[in-house]
Design a protein that fits this description.
Layout (H helix, E strand, L loop, with lengths): L1 H10 L7 H23 L3 H48 L2
Helix pairs in contact: 2-3
């Protein structure tokens, strides 16, 4: 149990770009890719094709947001730490 929790803690660290969030985002997209056409299949061929379209769009959306947010979160984290360090230096030399 502890090892699993520690893995989630390390995986969610912003300095790493939040790899846990990336995996979760990709997993949601893959789940949508299969569940949306499956639900549409029960309603007919037109709904099935609409489900394929929406599922593929969801997968692409989750992939793109996952990979765009990873470097963005990393840069925000670095910038935040730089500002905090700079402020500490200013206070120290005051």
């Amino acid at each position: 149990m502890f090892e699993f929790s520690a893995g989630l803690l390390v995986g969610s660290l912003e300095i790493l770009g939040n790899p846990t969030g990336l995996v979760r985002s990709i997993g949601n997209g893959v789940a949508d890719m299969f569940s949306m056409p499956y639900r549409g299949l029960a309603r007919g061929p037109g709904e099935f094709l609409d489900g394929v379209r929406r599922g593929t769009g969801s997968l692409l959306w989750h992939l793109s947001t996952g990979f765009v947010m990873k470097p963005t979160n990393f840069l925000i984290c670095i910038a935040t730490h730089c500002v905090v360090t700079f402020c500490k230096v200013l206070i120290f030399f005051r």
